[in-house]
Design brief:
This protein is of the alpha/beta class. The protein has 2 domains: 2-196, Rossmann fold (3-Layer(aba) Sandwich); 200-267, no CATH class. The protein is 42% helix and 19% strand. The chain contains 8 helices and 10 strands. It has a 5-stranded mixed beta barrel with strand order 5-9-8-6-10. Helix 5 packs across helix 6 (217-232). The radius of gyration is 20 Å and the shape is elongated. The mean pLDDT is 91.
């Protein structure tokens, strides 16, 4: 599982509770690792969140891992300290929306979440407000399947307790108090990830396919994702291999495979 957390104060209780250790050779971002979990402290903002996802994707390229953006958010209705699971993540600039599939039964409340460039002094709607989630979702889509991309937030401010009055010295304790409700969700998400992990035979085929052409690192991730989809949609491996082999340039090969899969997506 990969956790993207913006601030050290948010991350510290997670690092302790998950028994994570600082990883060596992670100059770009503070990175903490454990047996089944990687946590990166991204910094605030969409560009930092996106860069953190890409960094983890390159460093830990295993397919179908769970990805979670976890941290504080303002909310127009929920009380401070309340956890919520984002069922719709909207980007305040582009208007694009991402809908994390709600496959896990959880006691955590659900709420829409709007990602903005700057902290808001007001809360115009009874939804969450943060500065990273939409970029996280967009970037994580290149690394895993949609059901394994989730956003969990803890309310740090609301109309009765506006962001300018937030006491940063309480940040760690606020997150620590929320963990009993968050940990069961993370455990269920990890269980879900283990169920969708490709079998060894498929992983071997994917590696063979990647050796057919000089794909870039970004293209390799695209090919992995498409070949996992091909398996789920019932496209025979020999057909997928033939498409990659018969196409000329790497970009063309990816495009041709995506076109074939699009026909099957429409029929599924």
């Amino acid at each position: 599982m990969n956790l993207i957390v913006a601030l050290k104060a948010e991350a510290s209780p997670l690092i302790e509770s998950l028994s994570l250790s600082r990883a060596e050779g992670s100059e770009s971002f503070p990175l903490f690792v454990g047996d089944h979990c990687n946590l990166i402290i991204s910094g605030v903002g969409k560009s930092r969140a996106s860069a953190a996802v890409l960094y983890l994707r390159e460093r830990f390229p295993q397919p179908n891992q769970a990805w979670v953006n976890l941290g504080f958010a303002g909310h127009g209705k929920l009380e401070v300290g309340k956890s919520f699971l984002a069922n719709r993540v909207m980007d305040g600039e582009s208007g694009e929306a991402f809908y994390p599939p709600q496959l896990i039964v959880s006691k955590i409340a659900s709420s829409s979440l709007l990602t903005t460039l700057n902290p808001l002094a007001e809360y115009p709607e009874p939804i969450g407000y943060d500065m990273e989630a939409s970029a996280f979702c967009l970037s994580a889509r290149t690394a895993t399947t949609r059901e394994l991309i989730q956003v969990v937030k803890v309310v740090s401010d609301n109309p009765a307790n506006p962001v300018e009055s937030f006491d940063r010295s309480r940040a760690a304790s606020l997150m620590k108090n929320a963990l009993p409700s968050i940990h069961p969700f993370l455990e269920k998400l990890e269980q879900l990830a283990s169920k969708v992990t490709p079998p060894t035979e498929l992983l071997e085929f994917i590696e063979e396919a990647l050796a057919l052409k000089p794909f870039t690192q970004t293209q390799r991730h695209q090919v992995r994702k498409l070949l996992n989809q091909a398996n789920a949609l019932g496209l025979p491996e020999e057909d997928a291999r033939a498409i990659l082999e018969s196409s000329g340039a790497t970009r063309e090969a990816i495009h041709e495979l995506d076109l074939v899969l699009e026909e099957r997506r429409l029929l599924s």
